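Blinded run. Sample ID left blank on purpose so nobody reads anything into the name before looking at the predicted structure. Input follows.
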Amino acid sequence: MPVALVTGASRGVGKGIATALHDGGYTVFATGRTIDAADLPSSIIRIRCDHTNDDDTDSAFARIASATPTIDVVVNNSWGGYERMMDGGKFTWALPFWQQPAHRWTSMMDAGVRAAWAVSSRAVPLMLPQQRGLIVNISVWAAQKFIGNTIYGVAKAATDKLTADMARELRPHNVAVVSLYPGLVRTESVLEAAKYGVFDLSNSESPEFLGRVVAALAAPSNASGLLARSGSVIVAAQAAMELGVVDVDGKQPAPLTLQTA
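Blinded prediction complete.
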């Protein structure tokens, strides 16, 4: 069975990806700060881990290495940027950069970008012996246009740059790295907000949809196509159309673009 590691898998996108890879025949290691309480299939291997703490990350990889000599897929979904949008009773998410709380930089750059680098750095030695592998960095259109706030854009642009440069260094080893852009994902928080009319879910994606796309990208039949796209941004819904992937409800979400995101 191929082996996958999904970070930030306690809920939302990460939980959906871990579940879909498990359903697709992967042995899945799932990490998160609250992973022990996550609603995941029982055979997924849970490792409680705060990826802002390098000792935690080292311990997680020691456990993985004790169980398997290789990793086939890593999905870097760890992210703290959507936490604490309210500070002292005030909604701070959309404030200009000079009024943003400092914790937002830390939660996006450390729990997001740095965690992706730290996890990938430890995963690559488990990929090099087999001369293949896929690292997926979850990103979003804020890397390319202003959405929400300045720090958000900086963090996602850094994620895409990390993808591009990691891919360059890993190309001789046949290990691919991509940034994967979801559309509107029906996470727990999105579904709750939709009750109040905040979101139109008509073109939304299940959290599992992204995992299905990752599995299709990593499939042996797509090996040459994946390496050709290494270092690039992949819009999940667009890739799904190309690879024949449908959502859990049988629907094919329409891909967002820079203009429509």
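Unblinding after everyone has recorded impressions. Residues 102-123 form the longest helix (22 residues).
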